[in-house]
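ASSEMBLY PREDICTION REQUEST
Request ID: AP-0331
Submitted by: J.K., bench scientist
Number of chains: two
Total residues: 463
Priority: normal
Notes: Please return the full assembly, not individual chains.
Input sequences:
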Amino acid sequence: MSASRIKQGCARACAVLFACMVSSGCMNARIDQNRHGMTGLEADEAVVVLARSLYNGNETETKFIDCVDKALARGKPPLRVISDEVFRDDFYPWFEPRTAPRGSEDLPAMLSEEALATKLRKEKVRYLVWIEGSTEAHDGGGGISCAAGPGAAGCVGLVWWEKDSTYEASIWDLENPSSAGQVTADVSGMSVVPALIVPVPMIAPTQGKACKQLAEQLRNFLVQGIS
Amino acid sequence: MSNRLRYCAIIAILLATLAACTTSAVDSEFPVPVVDKLPITVAVYFDQAFSNYAYREQSPGEKSWVIMIGSANVEMMRRIFQGMFQETVELPELPGLKFPVGQVDAVIAPEVESFEVRTPQPPQYTPDGTQLLRGVDESTDRFTVWITYRMTMYDDQGRQIASWPVRAYGQTPEGVMDMFGPDEALARATTIAMRDAGAYLSIYFEDEPRIREWMREEGVSNRPAPRKPGKAIRAR
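STATUS: Completed
Returned structure:
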């Protein structure tokens, strides 16, 4: 094989690799909101982020809820966040899969329970944020072949797939028991694993981006009353 | 057979038995329900079958499971009744002929009527590689637990007021199986089912028609109208 052919081959491989890196870094994000009423949050008031029940077919990942909690608690201004697990224990049995209110229209009846209403006031819980959605990988393509021999081993090829993170946050105001609105985040991106001797995974962090953007939008929605 | 060989054989059998049988202990920590307390004093009786309840699941050729829920049963009911009633006391035995029970308005005796487990099933494929669907529920990578408790309530004279089932459902949460293994996954599904039972009991206790009637007669009802029951237990 001539030196020019080898150079040509390397250049082609580098171009493919570069294209892959660029496309994996490129994600499409869409954030939307739908406001039903005025919002606002005092410094000592708390927000609770809860995953919609698995029994309703929802598969929101626990780590996504944790990520939103952390992002809300750390950002500017930091919000007082009560974690899903602590809240469900502290306010048992009202937020279990079978007993949780299914819509904001159930709130007034639930809050007529004096013990519950008193505790919510005492803990200064102002908003419930229900998260639905998940991250899913869609069909991709390509392939990687690996071989090993005496003193040498390596892989050649390319695989890719699409990831889509879609989440919706429904915000309920407990001070004025009703729905305050919804915020949605939809982030998609291509993940690729090129292999030239060693496979190099380049995974599109769609879930992390959806978490950050949803949390930021939520903060604006709750604190400033605008977004 | 020499003694040495005999010992080896016994140890091998013991190890094989232990490897094939897993015992799951269920978490005994349950929250006290945040509900309006009913202004009555209730005596509770936990019989031996309830407080030592263990479930064994054994299918031919498969790993067997033993789930000990006796102490968790007792702890869960204690916490639930503590939140529901103004005062509760425990009886060492069901009074039987010793009624009336002094200083209490009613006696409650819980039992485990049934306990069912569905273990995770690997997906099955047709010869052309198509995955076979399993009908009602396709998520087969988790444990699912159904428990039915039977609650029997007597008045202070020993007359039965009501006997009703409390059905509960629990499923292993996402990620637990991968992170902690099957023993913990089964224990978590069972704990969730028990929490479900406690939640239903504490919220819908007064909606049981016979209890409602008894409370009206006793003049202790707190609520003007029955609550709407929650989501029905998921069909199997």
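REVIEWER COMMENTS: Residues 228-236 of chain B have pLDDT under 50 and may be disordered.
SIGN-OFF: pending second reviewer
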